[in-house]
């Protein structure tokens, strides 16, 4: 907003001092191309995301969410709040699967963050109804083309199972966390089995 105001001031000075005109026009052209195309679009996208996120806060959080991996729920051994180190509890569930297994969003929502951190390695956070944040960690790689602000559904691939972050040296798994506005909750009671994948023709795969 304030950036736009600054644009108008140099334009008013152009009429008074001609020698600066070419330099200023060039500078403005460069600024418009770089800040304008990249920056303002980014800011606009963030703004749109904030409005969408604000709307999500007015909705009730889902009582059931879909397994982010094509793995039966009963294969998860409950590690919620298991001590990890001296002063940390496990704030999520680990879902083990071969490296490279596609990880889908467990919910509808918007990609809130894509980023690297020490514990989680390559991570994606999705914000859904009720302002809940779903956290996917230890990705081997991200799904190509995903970006912050993207709308996602349980059919959207976010990334691929791996061992990045503090999962190095462990069997590949997805760390899945659910955060309400007041803190982490156990994802396990919310999770339901993912439906069998559909063939391109629309028929369900048997077995
Ligand atoms: Zn974990």
What would you note in describing this structure?
With 207 residues, this protein is of the alpha+beta class. The protein folds into two domains: 56 residues; 128 residues, Glucose Permease (Domain IIA). It has two helices and twelve strands, in the order ααββββββββββββ. Strands 2, 4, 5, 6, 8, 10 and 11 form a seven-stranded antiparallel beta sheet that branches. Strands 3-9-7 form a three-stranded antiparallel beta sheet, with no helix packed on it. It is elongated and about 75 Å long. The N and C termini lie far apart (57 Å). The site of zinc ion has 4 residues, from loops.
How would you briefly describe this protein structure?
By secondary structure, this protein is α+β, with helices and mostly antiparallel strands. Helices cover 25% and strands 26% of the residues.
């Amino acid at each position: 907003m304030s950036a736009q105001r600054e644009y108008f001031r140099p334009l008013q000075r152009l009429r008074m001092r001609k020698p600066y005109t070419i330099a200023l026009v060039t500078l403005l052209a460069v600024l418009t191309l770089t800040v304008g195309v990249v920056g303002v679009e980014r800011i606009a996208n963030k703004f749109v995301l904030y409005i969408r996120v604000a709307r999500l806060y007015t909705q009730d959080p889902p009582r059931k969410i879909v397994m982010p991996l094509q793995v039966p729920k009963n294969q998860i051994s409950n590690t919620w709040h298991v001590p990890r180190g001296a002063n940390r509890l496990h704030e999520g569930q680990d879902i083990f699967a071969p490296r490279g297994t596609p990880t889908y969003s467990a919910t509808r929502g918007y990609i809130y963050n894509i980023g690297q951190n020490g514990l989680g390695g390559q991570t994606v956070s999705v914000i859904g109804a009720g302002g809940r944040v779903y956290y996917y960690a230890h990705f081997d790689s991200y799904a190509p083309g995903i970006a912050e602000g993207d709308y996602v559904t349980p059919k959207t691939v976010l990334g691929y199972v791996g061992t990045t972050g503090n999962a190095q040296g462990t069997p590949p798994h997805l760390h899945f966390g659910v955060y309400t506005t007041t803190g982490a909750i156990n994802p396990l009671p919310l999770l339901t089995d993912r439906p069998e994948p559909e063939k391109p023709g629309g028929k369900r795969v048997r077995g």
